[in-house]
What we know:
Strand content: 5-15%
Mean pLDDT: 86
Distance between the termini: 60 Å
Amino acid sequence: MNLVTDPWLPVSDTNNTLCYISLNQLFEKPDEWLDLVLRPHERVSVMRFLICIVQASLGGPGDIDAWHDALDEIPEAGLTYLNKWHGSFDLFDKKKPFLQIASLKLGNDNSTGPTVTKLDSTLAVGENGPTLFDHGAAGPVQGVCVNRKLLDRKLVISLMTFLNYSPSGTQSSANLSGKLISHNSGAMDAPCVNQNMLHTFVVKNTLIQTIHANLLDRELVQEFYGEDSWGSPVWEIGEPESLNDEIKYKNSVDTYLGRLTPLSRFCKLEQGSPYFIYCKGFQYSTKPKKKTDSKRVYADFKPEPSSTVLVDSDNNYTVLKSGVNMPWREVTSLISKRNKDSYGGALALKYLGHSDSFDLLVVGQVRDSKNVAKILDLIESKVHIPAYMMDSYRQQAYESNIKICENKSFSLFKAVERYRVLLDDEWKGLVKRVVEKSTSEVDRKQRFIFRKKTVNHYWTLVEKQRHLLMQYISFLGTKQDQEREDAKQAWQRAINHAAKETYQILCPRESPRQIRAYVAGESLLSPSKFYRKEET
Length: 536
């Protein structure tokens, strides 16, 4: 199975048909392939791999001017590079397997390694494996799912995703160069999974154009990651001899190209085998240090190029997380252009002009905070960004209106909770404990779940009317006063309607007692508490 010549990459063609192509085919017909056909966390991993190949084949681009010229150079440069490094992309090569450690052997306490299905985090592996994304899972026998196997083309994608998204915790054990890497030695998160980070990619008409739109030039990489931070793809450097292999560790952990295809776990596959060998690999620092004096610093924190960097309440760096808010509510954070030692969106946004409209694909994985190996959800959202949204005044207005929606969401929750308190003595006691700050963790979790369920329908309705918000924002700064006011009123009515409809669904009025509770809660949804003046 060689990625250069064998079909493995799932893409859609100009007829919107699913095709599996090789890397050579990707570059031979650059106008034929429109997009990847992958789940969100797989898309992130494969995009990073494709970007790495193109960046390595170009040896850059060197600066922003070279970046603009690079699109036409990609097909020929890619094919030349793949011809040179053809042997490095064989999944089962005996001496140099792709993204694996050929010399890795089973740990002393293992008769076999884990099953290869472990590489795919969405499969239900083991007795307690969740079936959220795997409803057809076969029954497990002694922790091994019967008749489960991955095709070679699926193995490639699963391996890439495993190296980018493997969660922290206890790992399997293995021997490397005669030294045991114990299963008891805990590993850190792989680079793309930490803090449930969201990843953002600029999307264009074809896959090659999308890859080009997300390339970084050498000057930009040096500005953000420091001198000597360009590096090389890990397959060019060769496999490490140990966890302390300083040269290969530094390239893999501290350089741009090295991090795009990380070795967060050391793995070895055997062709046709249902098992594989793996253990802890190089450890990637993903959390920032505290700020120093009056200046925030990245220190050893290397935010991924596709992540969105924020500043938390303690004035320290963090990243925008999956599963907290819907991506459209975070647009201003996603599109803000990041400067060194500051917060902002994906680095590729630096190449967009203020007059450019564009599409952003926002993808991520949500995992359980207590059981980090358990995936709760996968996030994928395509957001169109009109050119006028790059104006700071309009961004402030957008944020202000999102805040209005959030305030209405809180009022809705308080209204529904008042309704429930008047009908449910147990819930009345829980709320009383919360007010008196004598509540338990169970109470807090129960109330959090109740609040989330209460507002989910509301936010879905609001999202369907987001076009009204965008219409209002587009009129800001223009002389179309009447059109702007009409758009504003239409947007505000949509928010009120979403809250009222949600309240009516959640709060029945079938008995006198329910009617009294309904009226008491409805008073908290008074429009007089919603409208607020805005400068236009």
